[in-house]
Every structure is written in structure tokens, then in C-alpha cells.
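User: I'm curious whether this sequence folds into something compact or stays loose and floppy. Could you predict its structure so I can see for myself?
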Amino acid sequence: MKSILITFDQAHYEDIVATLDRLECNGFTYLEHVMGQGSNGGEPHFGSHAWPSMNSAIITIVEDVMVDEVLGELKKIDLYRPQLGLRAFVWNIEKGI
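Assistant: Here's the prediction. I'll summarize afterward.
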């Protein structure tokens, strides 16, 4: 099993949830307000007067064989609106209950 952490501008939410649903990634945790700044020249997302936009994050656990498909679909979303920002990171899941 793998964990995929998806961080994204809040404007991507509906597209990401629809993608996860279409790929039958039924379980996820949604973190609505996430502040941060991309390391590749991304603008800050701090929810402040100076930097009003906000990020969100979704964590989902998938079978190993699904990782490339999920990342490929997320990449399409990012390429469609690259100025918003979307990143995804994968970790091994060792145990769970």
C-alpha cells in the first residue's frame, strides 16, 4: 500500500475529488486549510491580506499498482492550470488498523 499526499490550490478541489472517485480511490482525508509556499517559484498561500489564496491537502491510501495512474491523472490537472499549483508525494504504508 502507498499513501499519496496531494497538496493543491483550493480551486482544484472538485477536479481532484472527481478524479479520485473515478479511479475508485474511495477513502481519503481532506485538510481544507493548508498554508505554504512552493519551492519552485510558487507564490505563498497564506490566507492573508498580502497572500490571500489558500492550499488544501488530501491524503489517500491506494494499492501499489494504482500509484502511477493516480499521479498521471493529477499531473493532467496540474498541466491544465499550472499557475494554481498541485503537488503529490508518495510514501510506503507499513502497517495500519
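Summary: The mean pLDDT is 90. The chain has two helices and four strands.
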